[in-house]
């Protein structure tokens, strides 16, 4: 019973990988979509940066608060 389930799951996962590969090969300039925020075009257009860039910008523009 477990062997039968293992074979079915292996076949389904194989079909998924083949589908991804075919999609990438058929598309012009086919590649996986960029999911990193810093390199994602849609996020750049909205002005959203990755955590490292946001931290860098915050540190660069830091002004201490005077307590006088």
Structure description:
This protein has helices at residues 2-26, 41-46, 51-60. The N and C termini lie far apart (76 Å). The chain contains three helices and no strands. The radius of gyration is 23 Å and the shape is elongated. Helices cover 60% and strands 0% of the residues. The chain is mostly helical. The mean pLDDT is 85.
Give me the secondary-structure topology.
Blueprint (H helix, E strand, L loop, with lengths): L1 H25 L14 H6 L4 H10 L8
Main sheet overview: none
Count of DSSP helices? Answer: 3
Rounded mean pLDDT score: 85
Number of strands: 0
* Model regions low in confidence, pLDDT < 50 over at least 5 residues: none
What is the element string, with H for helices and E for strands?
Answer: HHH
N→C terminal distance:
76 Å
Structural class: mainly alpha
Radius of gyration: 23 Å
Share of residues in helices: 55-70%
Task: Please indicate the percent range of residues in DSSP E strands (runs of 2 or more).
Answer: under 5%
Which descriptor suits the 3D outline? elongated
């Amino acid at each position: 019973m477990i062997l039968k389930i293992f074979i079915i799951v292996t076949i389904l996962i194989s079909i998924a990988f083949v589908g991804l590969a075919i999609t990438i090969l058929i598309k012009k300039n086919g590649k996986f979509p960029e999911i990193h925020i810093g390199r994602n075009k849609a996020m750049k257009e909205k002005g959203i940066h990755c955590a490292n860039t946001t931290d860098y910008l915050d540190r660069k523009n830091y002004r201490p608060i005077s307590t006088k």
